């Protein structure tokens, strides 16, 4: 069989075109090259004369062709209620008496007096003669009293080291500090002046030694205690990733956090439980989701897995690095329900509207913000910024037309009732600091902003309903903080 001759016939198959991309470059030797070259020459002349010409001005323009709709609105005057409190002398008599405490400085002074009594008869006699003119029995009573106080001093040291005493000091410190910052955290109960433009007022800055130099990735308010703020620290995109850190801050104590939680990986997101306000869920860069009990001093955790849901617990959104947003369902894990395509850079944040569950906002590294309706594949509105990638975006829990966004250089507050083109408030970041996240307060007109230096700044929103197009830098002059200087 090896010597047998075998004939093999080779023929050419038909040419199959897999990809055909028309050329966008015209050869200089082509027949239609002259009109193209003339067009390029005219464009080059316009670009060269643009810098010295007074007829060209840079101005961003955005055209909105929204659907018109007639909608009647009727408002009622706000209700006012007078409240009064009565206090009688019986409340003082029925109040519990405070526990008697021993002054440490007086105890030390009495200790030196007793030591002088034991040093010698002459010194003791001179001391007794100089302090009292009574009989020897009265002097003996004083010595017994000093000995009783010395025993109380040893008991005082045990009391100061107890856990109950440390908790009492923590509450006392919080109350003392709250009296100094309460005037800024609670808005004044006066009528706002209609002529004043929107602005931001810096109230306080939350920072400690552990958080300095760490970028803030997420913020969350406690559902039951609106004065408790959880802050997650970490840089997911950094090559030299540090261990994750979570700090629970109280608005009454900006000097140090109430709870400090060390995580094994960088923190990417966190939120408090609505059913159990003492439980804090933390998502990490390595895919771990841990639940911590912040009511316990050691903050024990349980590891679980999950995702970020929208208003419907069975529907959730996923932003991708390609700029596509996927709408997914818990009941259908094989495929996506919808695909929202508008961004051409990585999606950095998605936020559902708390007052309208059909709307959500998305921001991206392509310097744009898109407003979506979940049953439409094209955005309803688009907003552009000229200051680079938008890092985070959040809706206001009080107004469906107000939202905030942070980018590398500034904080922007948008009010769609005033303008679709420009924000009504712009707060620049401190030099060398990048704003990374923000969150609106649900119980006050405040917004908290986290930056790349680990600081959390609280701003008060003033006259937000009085915004007019063009007042874009109204709050940039009165919102400076000592912590950002």
UniProtKB/TrEMBL annotation:
InterPro entries with a match to the protein in the record: Dynein_IC, WD40/YVTN_repeat-like_dom_sf, WD40_repeat_dom_sf, WD40_rpt
A Pfam family: WD40
Keywords: Cell projection, Cilium, Cytoplasm, Cytoskeleton, Flagellum, Repeat, WD repeat
One GO CC term on file: axonemal dynein complex
Keyword Cytoplasm tagged: yes
Gene Ontology MF: a single term: dynein light chain binding
Gene Ontology terms: biological process: cilium movement
Compartments it resides in: Cytoplasm, Cytoskeleton, Flagellum axoneme; Dynein axonemal particle
Stretches forming WD repeats: 340-373
Protein name in UniProt: Dynein axonemal intermediate chain 4
Lineage of producing organism: Eukaryota, Metazoa, Chordata, Craniata, Vertebrata
Primary gene name: WDR78
